[in-house]
Amino acid sequence: MNDLSFLKPASRQIDFDNFDDRLLLYVLKYEPSFFTCISCGGCTATCSAGNLTNFNVRKIGLWLRRGETEKLSEEIQKCMFCGKCTLVCPRDINIRNVILLIKKRIAMLKNENTTA
């Protein structure tokens, strides 16, 4: 009984061979406060879009740090930009700006891929 695969769920593994950190570096460049996020969940708890859909702001931070741009691209479309997340953040992270930066950079990356 040497199979310990249950200790490493595939959903938690980061594939560093395919890891794309361009999006994370872009966000940190223009919103360095995101680096201080402690994933407390206050943003998700107060989110208007989260009350109406299955939108989860904490997942955005997680996927951004993992470089999962496909999931991010779909998830950020649900944001209503109400700003409640920014108001309750104990680290004063402008989460609305983070989401706008993600949208902008994903659009730029898609344009780079289509013109290349």
Question: Would you kindly provide a brief summary of this structure?
Answer:
The mean pLDDT is 86. This protein has 116 residues and is mainly alpha-helical.
Key terms for this structure?
7 helices, single chain, mainly alpha
Question: Would you kindly provide a written description of the structure presented here, covering whatever features stand out?
Answer:
Helix 1 (22-30) crosses helix 7. By secondary structure, the chain is mainly α. The mean pLDDT is 86. It has seven helices and no strands. Helices cover 53% and strands 0% of the residues.
User: Shape, please?
Assistant: globular
In terms of structural class, how would the helical and strand content be classed?
mainly alpha
Order of helices and strands: HHHHHHH
Mean pLDDT: 86
Distance separating the two termini:
49 Å
Q: What's the layout of helices and strands?
A:
Blueprint: H1 22-30, H2 42-46, H3 48-52, H4 57-66, H5 69-75, H6 84-88, H7 95-115
Helix pairs in contact: 1-7
